[in-house]
Amino acid sequence: YQGLAGRSTKEVLQLYAAHGQQMTFQRSSVVTQLHGEIKKRLKQDLKSLHSFALQLSKDFQRQSKTCLYQVLAAVQGIQLQNEAMQMFQIKAFDLEQSLQEVTERYEKEKQKRKALHNSLIELRGNIRVHCRIRPLLPFDDAAGHSQDRQRNFSEKVAYAADDETVLVKCSRPGHASVNKTFQFERVYNDLESQDAVFADVAPLLTSLLDGYNVCIMAYGQTGSGKTYTMLGPQLEGNLAFAIEEESELGIIPRATQEVFRLISEKPPGSYWVEVSVVEVYNNEIFDLLAKDSCGRVFGVKRDVVTTREGKSDVPLLTHETVENASEFLHLVNKGLQLRVTHPTLVHAHSSRSHLVVTLTITTVVFGDNFGTLWEDEQTSQRLNKEASFTFPQKIRDNKSTSSSRASSPVQIEATEKMKQVKTRLQLVDLAGSECVGMSGVTGAALRETSFINRSLSALADVLGAIAEQRAHVPYRNSKLTHLLQDSVGGDAKLLVMLCISPGQKYLTESMQSLGFGTRARQVQRGQVKKKNFPVTSKGK
C-alpha cells in the first residue's frame, strides 16, 4: 500500500505538473490572442488619433490664418481710427479756436448791440409816449351833463388815423367841427390786442439788464383802460392770472415774464430779483407788502427821502425776493387786494391811488468782468460815478426782507472780488384824472380826486421842467414824483402809455391827456418853448 500510495503520489504530482503546464499554455495563448487584439486596436486608435491630429492641425492653421487676418484688419482699422482721431483732434482744435474767435466776436457784437440798442432807444427818446384808444363800452351810453342831454355822448370822436397819429373830432354846438391830430411814437386803435401793445414795450426791458432804470406808466382819465392795459382783466378786485387765454395779460405780468426770460439766458446766480408794491394814496405812500405780527399783509405808511447822492429812497420798505414770474404775480395780487377803489359815475371800480410795482434787479459781476459787462463807455462811466463801495450782507436765503435799501437806483456795491449793480423796473398804474362834475364824487372821494389831480399836475410840472432844462426839477412837490425821481429824467427810460376814451362824453379829458402826452414827447429833445404845461383835469 505504501508503494502504491507512493506511486499514486507521483502520478498526482505529474498530473498537477501537466495540469500546470496545460494551464500555462492556455494562459499564454489567451494572452497572445489578447495582445494581438490590443495591438490591432491600438493601431486603429493611433491611426484615428493621427487623422484627428492632422485634421485638428489643419483646422488650427486655418483658424490661425483667419484670426491673423482679423488681427491685421483690426490693426489697420485702429490705425485708420487713430488717423481719423488725429484729424478729428485737429478739427476740434480748429473748431475750439474758431469758437473762441466767434465767442469773442459775439461778445463784441453783443456790446455793440447793447450800445446800438440804447442809442436807438435814446434816438426814439428816453421818454417815449404811446397812445391806446379803447373801444366804446356799454357805460359810455350814459348821459352826461343835464344841459347837454340832447347831444350823442356815445359818439366816437377819437380815432387812430395810423399807427403814429391820433385824430380827434372837436365840435361845439353852433360851430363847425374841427379835426385835431396828435403825433406819438405809437398809436393803438381799439382793435389791437395786449400782445401788440407789449411787443413795443419789450425792447425797453433789454435796457434794464444793460444797466438802465426803466419806468412804464399808464396815464389817462378814469375809465380809459389804464388798469386793463397794465394788469389785464380783474375779477372782484383780484388779478385774473388764471384766465384761460394769456393773450389778455397786461404789461406788468408780461414784463415780469420777459425779465425772467432774459435772466434765464444769463449765467446762473448772476442776477436776483426783489419786488416791492406801494400805493400813493392822498399823497401818502403805503407799503402793500408789509405784514403785521401775525404775518397778515396790511398797508403801512412809509415816507420817501432823498439820499446824499440825490436819489430817492423809501426807508423800511418791504422787499420780497422772487425767483420766477409766478411768485411775483402772487405778491402783486396780495398788494392789489389792499388798493383803494371807489365807485364813481364814470367807473364802478375807479382806482383812488397810484400803484407802483418795483422790480429791483441786482447783477453780480465777478473780478474784472465788470468792464466787459458794460463796455459802452458812457454806461461804464455813469455806473462808476454812482458807485458805492460798501458791500452788503450775503444774499439771504429767506424770501423777505424789510429794511432800508441802498438809495441809488443804479448802485454798485463792490469788494475786491465781486461787484453788484442794481437797476429798477417801475411799473406804474396811475389813478385816473377826473372832472368832478363828470365823476359826481363827494365827501372823501372828492378829497381823493383833489389829491389825484394834484399829483398828476406835479408829474406834469416835472416833465415840463425837464423839457425846459430848468436847473431845478420839482420832484418833491408830490410823493408820487419824489418816489419816481430816479425813473423820470436823466438816463432812465420812461414809457408813458396814454389811455384814451373815444366817446364824445370824455372829449375834454381826452384832449387834456393828449396834451400831456404831446408835451411829454418834447422832453426827449430838450428843445421846447417855455409855456405852461397843460393841466390834467378840468375843475381842479
From TrEMBL:
Gene designation per UniProt: Kif25
Keywords for the protein's UniProt record, in alphabetical order: ATP-binding, Coiled coil, Cytoplasm, Cytoskeleton, Motor protein, Nucleotide-binding
Matching InterPro entries: Kinesin-like_fam, Kinesin_motor_dom, Kinesin_motor_dom_sf, P-loop_NTPase
Residue stretches in coiled coil: 92-119
Pfam families: Kinesin (PF00225)
Protein name: KIF25 protein
Highest taxon listed in the record's lineage: Eukaryota
Compartments it resides in: Cytoplasm, Cytoskeleton
